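Suppose you are handed a protein chain with no further information: no name, no annotation, nothing but its sequence. What can you learn? This example shows the usual starting point.
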Amino acid sequence: MFLLKKLALFLTPLGFSWLLLGGWLIWSVWRRRRGILVPALAWLVLSLGTCTPLASWLLAGLENQFPRVMPADAPEVDAILCLGGGAEPSLTEPTGTGFNSAADRVTTALALLSAGRAPVLVVAGGDYRDKTQRYSEADAVVAWIQNAVKPPQEIISLGICKDTHDEAMKVAALAQQRGWKSFLLVTSAAHMPRAHATFAKAGLNTQAVPCDYVSSYNRIGSVRWLHLPGHASIHGFDAWLHEVLGMMLYWMRGWI
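A reasonable first move is to predict its three-dimensional structure. Written in structure tokens, the prediction is:
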């Protein structure tokens, strides 16, 4: 079964392409063919990105910028902020909400709420379109919390937000109305540097509570230095690049 699982990797588009390109390079070198520099570089880049912990190392550089905070050790604040990205509204799920790999954002916020760190939980999120209908991630998560968890604290939805900057602006307006001064900011560890800087620029005093650690350096088990190509490395590199480009864009716009 273990061998079959490993061999199955070569049936995926990524694994099959890597195998074909590597085999072609070996054959070309053996036949002493010329003009293999570009294909060789392509295979090398693909191998570094999918067969080594490079993506995890890059992600760890983002994830480790803020210390870990246990719910019981977090300070008491005016409100807990749960940023969007951990779920989406669903027309097929029985609960009306589908959670994804970043669902730790929601569970961590609920753990803080259960620990009595704040009397209010504010939930943010983007929008999802189905033909002409728009659905709010934040509304779906709030509905799920109220139906499944039923906490005694107040739960507020920010409705549809365009991006992290829009989330910060809506929270700043809400804070001015309610007189809130301090917050616990919950989001994925890799996203926390950009999110924390954005909320600070908006004049909000936030304590970072990072979660959803993706890098293998921050998960149980040893880091594998060489392994067969996998999609997890691709997703990790995409997440790192998204944050790096996002940080540059936010800086150019004056949002951080």
